[in-house]
Design a protein that fits this description.
199 residues, alpha/beta, Rossmann fold, 6-stranded mixed sheet, globular
Length: 199
């Protein structure tokens, strides 16, 4: 098993996914993706901090609203220890949040999560292909960050206020951690050009 998908309201999948039942069947057919029927029981164990997660997981996808504070802490600890990526979705999440400090984690609204991007993403993970959680939010997530980094570097070159410069450097450091390669203007321009040519 590569992905554990815990959705305690499975009817929502048919409601939000573009191809409704066909998409649900496609997900169920993916080898390496487990969507247990006894999901509420598993969530209850997680909330008590007593669930034994299967070994070898690459990704946990979970309905965040079904978790209590204790369950979220337990889940974060497990993901950190086992280096498991985590996607939390909920209708109550109004702002997309990505974090890669300790635990690589994405908080995303249910309607954004259950999009045409979901099944290709799940296929990449189960087929052992490289993946990034931000693919769930935007197919061109990397290009967006590359362009933002180039804009920040341009601002740094003309900014005179030291406090503002420091804030820009902090933003650039965060982007560098997300992109996972050293940022330079020349490298950014090359990568942006390659990405645009691939569109």
């Amino acid at each position: 098993m590569k992905i554990l998908f815990l959705e305690d309201r499975p009817g929502r999948q048919k409601l939000f996914l573009p191809n409704k039942e066909k998409d649900v069947e496609k997900m169920q057919s993916l080898s390496g993706l487990v969507m247990p029927e006894g999901c509420k029981e598993i969530l209850a164990w997680i909330n008590q901090g007593k669930y034994d997660f299967p070994k070898g997981l690459k990704l946990i996808i979970i309905h965040k609203s079904a978790l209590e504070t204790k369950g979220l802490i337990y889940l974060n600890d497990i993901c950190k220890e086992e280096k498991i990526k985590l996607v939390c979705f909920s209708g109550g999440i109004s702002q997309l949040v990505f974090n890669n400090e300790g635990v690589e984690m994405l908080n995303i609204n249910s309607s954004d999560f259950y999009s045409e991007r979901l099944i290709p993403f799940l296929e990449r993970v189960t087929n052992e292909q490289p993946f990034h959680l931000l693919e769930l939010a935007n197919e061109q997530w990397e290009l967006s960050y590359l362009c933002l980094a180039r804009q920040i570097i341009g601002s740094l070159n003309i900014e005179t206020d030291e406090d503002s410069k420091e804030l820009l450097k902090e933003k650039l450091d965060r982007i560098e951690k997300i992109l996972n390669f050293p940022l330079s203007e020349n490298e950014l321009n090359n990568r942006i050009t390659r990405k645009i040519l691939q569109l």
